[in-house]
Amino acid sequence: MFLSAQRVRSDGGVEGINAFHYLHGPFTWHGMPPAGVPDQNPGTLVAHTIAVAPPGNHVRSFLDVIAPDDASWSEIRPAFITFVSAAQRTPLPWAGVFGRCLFRINMDRATASRWSHEIADLYRAVQAVRIGG
Question: Tens of pLDDT along 83-104?
């Protein structure tokens, strides 16, 4: 699965978080996702929430969660907490594999000044758009 939450700002100054949930089928992986997932193969879009309709949006921040389709939130959540705990000691962008999950986070300078709140907002958005528990 590929979960992505993006804080976007429209050309008109409207801002909000768009979130997407993609599935990939029965891929099996340990550590890194299969080649091309999600950059060349985001998967099949199964759910989304759109706060600011495209086109013309500028991405201010994002959180990507890439994991097997069968990964439960009880697997993703502790891996995410471990990832953020380790990553916060380094400059953005952040990327890392913890368990069967790959996480990626980045944000613009203005948003980074409140990084912990921003990550919490993005996390809630990917959790909410995920279907199937």
Answer: 999 999 999 999 999 999 999 9
